[in-house]
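Subject: sequence -> structure tokens, single chain

Hey, anyone have a minute? Need the predicted structure for the following. Not urgent.
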Amino acid sequence: MDKLRTTLKQLVRDWSEEGRAEREACYEPMKDALAKHFSNVPAEERFCPSQSIPPPLTYPANVYRNKLRVLVPGTGLGRLAYDVARM
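Reply:
Had a minute. Here:
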């Protein structure tokens, strides 16, 4: 019965409107830290249309946010991982 109660609480917190405040309190600092940490990495690969080579980079070559992988341990019902993937 305890496992069921815990799962239902996680479901409400992670996926319902009623859980939004708790979710934002818990997850927003982590998402903000990720965004800040990777702020110098472009969101996606962009090439200059008039050239066949990419523009000069200020970050390691071939590193783009849409190619990064983030480990989310203890992910529960997956809301934080879902939100991070959408960033």
